[in-house]
Amino acid sequence: MDLQCGQQIVLASASPRRRHIFANAGFQVEIDPVLVNETIPPGTEPAAAVQTLALSKAAAVAARYPKGVVVGADTIVYHQRQILEKPHDRAHACHMLQQLSGNWHTVFTGFALIKLAAKLELVRAVATRVKFVPLSKEFIEHYVASGEPLDKAGAYGIQEGGSLLVEQIEGCYFNVMGFPIAAFYLEFQRLFGEHTVADQQD
């Protein structure tokens, strides 16, 4: 089965976790990371925030691959009406984990798909609820000292040492890792399962 439906897929992300998710699912993707302004205006709803950032990442790369399918993504943690992005430093990471300790939060990942040659643009957001076990100050400090939380939204990675923090999830596990691959595949198949006229003309 050709998961890619003959399409070139370009991932506009430097995240090794997203690359791993695509590869494990059977997709061959090209990596072309991009830096965009990831400032989220105060009061922005989390689903809207991740969709906007995912689209801006995909759009920044799309012109280089007009016949390819360019995918952008962004992930945030949302807790008590606050968006938790990547921590600024170790102290900030410790503060985030103290907030999440013993509580439920929601992970939002937005993904955007652009194919310029077919004039296609799609943006979606997926939410997964996560509950943490109660965390001691000593455990938080030990985990943060490992360096793992410093490049991750909400200051943890569920697939690594952060797995010890998670008591329960409701929704897509891979969404918490950074990309809801099943939701993406459903949309991808809907768009490209049958070749479009633009594909035939390419």
Describe the fold and architecture:
Helix content is 34%, strand content 25%. The protein is an alpha/beta fold and 202 residues long. The chain has one domain (9-201): Maf protein. Strands 1, 2, 3, 4, 5, 6 and 7 form a seven-stranded mixed β-sheet that branches. The model is unreliable at 195-202 (pLDDT under 50).
Please give a quick description of this structure:
By secondary structure, this protein is an alpha/beta fold.
CATH architecture: Alpha-Beta Complex
At the fold tier of CATH, the topology name is: Maf protein
Mean pLDDT: 92
Instruction: Note the run of SSEs as H and E.
Output: EHEHEEHEEHEHHH
| Helical segment count | 7
Quick one: CATH class? Alpha Beta
What low-confidence regions span 5 or more consecutive residues with pLDDT below 50? Answer: 195-202
> What structural class is derived from the secondary structure elements?
alpha/beta
Task: Bin the strand percentage.
Answer: 15-25%
- Major sheet description: 7 strands, mixed
**Annotation, overall tally of beta strands:** 7
Comma- or semicolon-separated keywords:
Maf protein; 202 residues; 7 helices; 34% helix; disordered C terminus
Write the layout of secondary structure elements.
Elements: E1 9-11, H1 16-25, E2 29-31, H2 46-62, E3 69-79, E4 82-84, H3 90-100, E5 104-115, E6 120-132, H4 137-145, E7 166-170, H5 173-177, H6 181-192, H7 197-201
Parallel strand pairs: 1-2, 1-3
Antiparallel strand pairs: 3-4, 3-5, 5-6, 6-7
